[in-house]
What we know:
Elements: H1 2-24, E1 29-31, E2 41-43, E3 48-50, E4 53-55, H2 62-76, H3 79-82, H4 92-107, H5 115-124, H6 135-145, E5 153-154, E6 160-171, H7 181-186, E7 192-202, E8 208-222, E9 234-242, E10 249-254, H8 259-269, E11 283-292, E12 305-306, H9 308-314, E13 323-324, E14 340-351, E15 354-355, H10 360-367
Parallel strand pairs: 1-2, 12-13
Antiparallel strand pairs: 3-4, 5-15, 6-7, 7-11, 8-9, 8-10, 8-14
Helix pairs in contact: 2-4, 2-5, 2-6
Amino acid sequence: MFRRSHILVLFSLVLSMGLMAAGCKKKAKHAAKGEACDSKTKCDGGTQCHLGKCEDLSMTSKACVYLRSTSKAIMDASPKSLIKGVNHKPDVDFISAITSAGANIYKTFGRKLSQSQCENMINCQLPKLGIGYGWFWTRAAFEANKTIPQGGIAIPKNPISIVSVIQKQGSMGEDTTLFPEEKIKMMQEHRIGCVSKVKFRVREKFAGFVTFHYWKHKCQFKPADKNKQDSSPSWDCKGDEILNKPYYTQTIYLYPFTDAQLKAKAKGLKGKGKQSFLTGNPGTYEIDIWAYNPIDEKLFPQHKQFEGKELEAMKAFSEFKFCPKYTDNTFNNGCACLGFSPSKITVTTSPDPFYLPFDEEACTKAAK
């Protein structure tokens, strides 16, 4: 009897302890998207524990879709097609660096990326692609997505205005710090040209290409009337016409640098004289715009070449301005500013689709 009761008591005790143990068993910890997690946490809503947080790793968020298509577009883009119609020779080194960076971003999609990682890459990696040369990746991105990313700023079409133009004859040298490289190459045969010191204003932040255009008089040569004693040759001019050929235009790229970027650039330019640094930031700037005088009488009638007896006859009219026959001496050639509309320069623009500012402080915090 005693043994049976003892056994019953012992059984009850074990059963009670088992029930207590079952009641004390901890429930699995749950966490919502964005909340902290570890190996013992169950992430809700289809999210997974990723780098200590419950994250959506489907990579179907708006940010991830944009980043994937943009990085692929940067890899595949053709520089010439992106700026078709703009007279600019892309820098191969810059393009290669931006393309490589785009490829590295695209490779990260082979691993799982969270929405927050995609957003961080858009805000902190894309703005650093080709600083000062952002046209390549922004145009490739817009062509692929037909939209601008969150935080991107749409560029105004034409916030550039001419303040003043001082036009004079000039001769082209070889120093690329003093003369535009593309004009040096262009002006190998005839070094005498027309140079205009142009002051222009940027009213709003601008990223894109600005092309400065010379204008010409629309003229025809009117020889002296042999039947009139005091008759002299002249140019019969009727209005002006904008010039679009590279000989008579000059294109630059403007970019709205941040204060930090400008300070870094200023250090790089230290000791190189007072050469102005052109930016897309609001302000007034000054630049030399060159025009070359090639032998093209159909395009530029007042560059008509006089030679032989006709040239000797023209010399008799001291007040008549004309072009003598070009010679082999490059520094004695050209008609300088003859035929150009005096002090008339206008601009056309090819703005980038957007500008994406770089918030260094926010990106530094996000990286910690």
